[in-house]
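Lecture 7 notes: from sequence to structure.

We start with a single chain of 64 residues. Read the sequence below before looking at the structure.
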Amino acid sequence: MIRTLIVALAIACAAIAAAPVAAAHGPYKNCTEAHQDGRYDIPKGDPDYWPAGDRDGDGIACES
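Now the structure, written as tokens:
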């Protein structure tokens, strides 16, 4: 029982380590560049958010 649990834990850790890391493409120069990368509605707090991309000041840059 414990051996099975240890093996399952080892497999889970290996799967997490092998998971791809999301590549950040920002910060973007403008919303056209963000949209070409598939980014819309970038919320404040997101690393790709920038105030100039939030034209109406509602905390969302590059709105769709």
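DSSP finds two helices and two strands in the chain. Keep this in mind for problem set 3.
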